[in-house]
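> example.struct
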């Protein structure tokens, strides 16, 4: 009997872990994400054509991790109702509607960060049903709402925790893969995180992205 118990425990743990993983993945996939078309799949990257979108962003000075956390809190203040219409944006999936508002705005994924000359710009994509004309104005003047035109980018997906060393390493791998495929990068590496901090690190999905110079984009 003593030999059977550990086997049963292991089986329960494995089944429970599989169910939790499925729940995390289902929650992630239920969030609205930037629309794109994969034009070419290479060994270590995807070439994507992104559709235009509206996003909220803020630029924060300081080290990457500190700036990302601060920028996230600033943007969270906006989407939790810190705006002229007091509209609420649900942080979880499925979308929930606040009792004291007539509309709600769904939280989207990912949270993206890109280096600037003075700090980092952190951004959230706004759900597709909103436009610059219909989005409520942020109470915080540091937040900018803008329309991002469509663009072409090379993207590399990776898992685990996001830290400066890992971002640099993944960015360098992306640049090397682009060079090997004859693609010329345009701009700074953008890192996108699709999961909240409470998701186990080995289950997290992240991406590094570099825009591609138009002259280097393969045309059919």
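> example.seq
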């Amino acid at each position: 009997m003593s030999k059977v118990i550990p086997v049963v425990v292991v089986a329960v743990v494995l089944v429970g872990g599989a169910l939790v993983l499925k729940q995390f993945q289902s929650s992630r996939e239920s969030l609205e994400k930037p629309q794109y078309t994969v034009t070419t799949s290479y060994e270590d990257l995807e070439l994507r054509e992104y559709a235009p979108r509206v996003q909220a962003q803020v630029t924060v000075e300081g080290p990457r991790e500190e700036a990302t956390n601060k920028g996230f809190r600033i943007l969270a203040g906006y989407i939790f109702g810190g705006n002229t219409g007091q509209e609420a944006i649900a942080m979880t999936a499925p979308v929930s509607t606040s009792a004291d508002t007539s509309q709600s705005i769904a939280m989207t994924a990912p949270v993206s960060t890109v280096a600037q000359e003075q700090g980092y710009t952190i951004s959230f994509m706004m759900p597709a049903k909103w436009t610059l004309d219909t989005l409520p104005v942020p109470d915080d003047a540091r937040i900018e709402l803008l329309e991002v035109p469509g663009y072409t980018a090379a993207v590399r997906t990776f898992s685990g925790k996001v830290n400066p060393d890992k971002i640099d390493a993944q960015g360098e791998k992306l640049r090397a893969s682009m060079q090997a495929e004859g693609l010329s990068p345009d701009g700074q590496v953008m890192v996108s995180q699709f999961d909240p901090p409470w998701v186990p690190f080995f289950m997290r999905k992240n991406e590094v992205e570099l825009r591609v110079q138009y002259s280097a984009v393969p045309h059919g």
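> remarks
DSSP finds three helices and eleven strands in the chain.
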